[in-house]
Structure formats: C-alpha cells, structure tokens
Design brief:
Elements (H helix, E strand, L loop, with lengths): L15 H9 L10 H7 L24 E6 L14 E4 L5 H13 L10 E4 L5 H10 L4 E5 L8 H4 L2 E3 L12
Parallel strand pairs: 2-3, 2-4
Antiparallel strand pairs: 1-4, 1-5
Length: 174
Amino acid sequence: KTFAPYPIEVVRRVPSRQLEDEIRAGEIDAFIASSGFFWRMQQYGAISVATLISDRQPNPNQGVAAAVLVRRDSPCQSFSDIKGKKLSASYPTAFMSYRTAMAELAVRGYDPEHFFSEIHYLGDTFNDFIAERLMTGESDVAFVRACWLETQPEEIRSAFRVLEPRSGDDLLCV
C-alpha cells in the first residue's frame, strides 16, 4: 500500500555481483546490503535511507566485522598460524566478510596480498558455502561475517571455531 500505484518486485536474495551489475545499469530502485557494499555503490547513485541493527550488533557504526573460522580440530590457534594456508571467502570487494579481515592482517604487520597460499572466492556472501569448504578440506581458513556462526545449528557451531575471538558491547558475538 505504501508504494501504490507503483509496482514492487521483491527479490529475496541476489548474488552480490549480480546486484552490483544491476545497480550500475540503473535496474535497481532499492536494495538492502552491507554498509561496505552500499559505500561502493554510492558512485552509481545509491543513497542511504536506513541502517540495520540487531541484538548481536546494536551499534551500526561498530558492528561490522568478519570472523576468521577454522575447523574445530585445526592446529591453528592464531593469525600467525594461518599464514600460507588456503582461504575461502566471498569475493574480493566484500567489505564485511573479506576486507575487514584483510585489514586486520595489515594492522598486525602482515602483507595481506601475499599472506595466503591461495584464495578461493565463491562470488557470493552465502556463508554456508564458504564454511563448507573447511569441512571438505578445500580450505584451511574461511572469512565469514561476524555473528554468522552464532546463528547456526549446534552441529555447525561445534564443527568450527573463531580464530582469536573478540567481542564487546558493540558486537555481541565472536
């Protein structure tokens, strides 16, 4: 009723690359995405109208982060242990689930561009597929968005652990 008489088509989930292409082509009127994705789309006319908060991420200015996952049985205990390992991630421009983790490597003095032996980008932000590569042994490390693990069923939560977990008032997950 709010948009009448204009037709509205709601697409529940569009891969990030496709959404980016459609925004560039002027085919999208509104979208919901991470703040980093929005920031990149401003050059194509995107404007901010709202932000998302949740019980786990109550401060939108501090709640954007990545979790660095390894299998529960991995010998890796710190960031230094994952140097030279195989990484699975969403895509190279993903702000929340990739760039923030790569920035953490840089802050710690590592060269993020040459830190991993290989990086496999899945081309989407569907964290289940990214984490699945850990279970199959195709990757040693996975970058997912913070709080993803806490939303999973126990059998998935128990299969992984977050490397060097941190949390606080602005991010109520690891």
